[in-house]
Amino acid sequence: MKTLVTGVAGFIGYHVATYLLARGDQVIGIDNINDYYDTSLKEARLQQLEAMPQAGNFKFLKLDIAQDDELATFFETERVDAIVHLAAQAGVRYSIENPHAYIEANIRGFLNILVGAQKVKVKHLVYASSSSVYGNSKTVPFSTQDQVDHPVSMYAATKKSNELMAHVYSHLYQLPTTGLRFFTVYGPWGRPDMSPFLFANAIFNETPIKLFNHGKHQRDFTYIDDIVEGVVNVLDSPPVAGSELAPYKIYNIGNNSPIELLDWVATLERHIGKKAVTKLAPLQPGDVVTTYADVDALGQEIGYRPSTTIEQGVAKFIEWYRDYYNYK
Questions:
Q1: 279 with 208: CB under 8 angstroms?
Q2: What angle do helix axes 310-324 and 195-205 make, rounded to 10 degrees?
Q3: Backbone phi, psi, residue 183, to 5°
Q4: What pLDDT score does 243 carry?
Q5: Among 17, 36, 140, 284, which residue's beta carbon has the most beta carbons within 10 A?
Q6: Which of 94, 102, 134, 155 is an active site residue?
Q7: Residue 54: per-residue pLDDT
Q8: Per the domain annotation, does 158 fall within a domain?
Q9: Do the strands 248-253 and 177-182 form a parallel or antiparallel pair, or are they unpaired?
């Protein structure tokens, strides 16, 4: 199968592409390598893909999904069987500072992906939604049956919009689409703007960690290998339209076991061998207090079973961090 992975130089995109190549698929990866965070990490991920024994089945193109003409030309020249769409402008707090970037990448860019997917009639479009769509819901664990009409950040609003846009294309064109509401993902090659990476970096370098909501935030941390297995299993199981329903699905994908940030910091401390310097701070605008995934549907329908414990996952993450940044 030939699969397009957008955001292939990103954290999850890199790992998904690695998995698909290892099992023998052809992968076309696109990414605009923007500078939202350190581009050298993105380049290093691409180098890892290009060094794989299966690199002959990998093709990378530097493209911006928000550029209509460029993406239209791509779909005219590259025939793909399926799409894993992970490219997006990420970050909750940055969406307050720069909302236009989210409309451009997450709305316009996603529309371009939908148009291209419909044109080449892909077998399945799997795309990244987010646990942020649940806002500050008091009902936990978060279920895909919950109402998600009250986002608290522009990032969350764009991800909810993606789900609605995908339904339109599934309904009008019988395009099989599945949205995955990702909960906090961590592991080797992770994003340096997310708390797992930020906290580890601060502990290694003995700089203060600012814990918002006085460290009482709860996050459903999910190890990258569990995420990738779920993504690929979903990709291989496109939804089928019923008598009245479009071929459309939404799933949570998380660990189903949230922990407080203070406990997360303590786990990092154990594996790094240093104490953290912490500063407690109040709740920030746009922050979600708790993320907690109900993954029953994904387990029952796709066989998703996250198996990596926090201790195992943090150990692997810190081992990679020490190696990549040369901390002995």
A1: yes
A2: 60
A3: -100, 180
A4: 57
A5: 17
A6: 155
A7: 97
A8: yes
A9: parallel
Over the range 91-111, which residues count as b (16 or more CB within 10 Å of their CB) and which as e?
A: bbebbeeebebbbbbbbebbb
Which residue matches tokens 């664990």? 141
pLDDT at residue 283 in the model? 85
Helices (H) and strands (E) in the chain, counts: 12, 13
What CATH number is given to the structural domain containing 38? 3.40.50.720
CA triplet 190, 55, 313: central angle to 5 degrees? 25
**Residue 324 annotated as catalytic:** no
Q: What pTM was estimated for this model as a whole?
A: 0.94
Tokens representing 36 are 């939202």
Residue 126 lies in a domain: yes
Q: pLDDT value at position 198?
A: 93
SS3 125: strand
> What is the residue whose two structure tokens read 């795309």?
127
Question: How many domains are contained in the chain?
Answer: 1
214 domain residue, yes or no? no
Domain range for residue 90? Answer: 2-186+221-256+292-307
How far apart, in whole angstroms, are the C-alpha atoms of residue 309 and residue 86? 25
Run means of pLDDT, 10 residues per run, the chain, 328 residues: 97 98 98 95 98 98 97 95 96 86 97 98 97 86 91 93 98 97 96 93 94 90 97 97 85 93 95 95 81 93 95 97 90
Distance CA 182, CA 210 (A): 24
Amino acid 289: pLDDT = 82
Q: Residue 257 — φ and ψ, nearest 5°?
A: -160, 80
Strands (E), the chain: 2-6, 26-31, 58-62, 82-85, 124-130, 177-182, 185-186, 208-211, 218-219, 222-223, 248-253, 259-260, 277-280
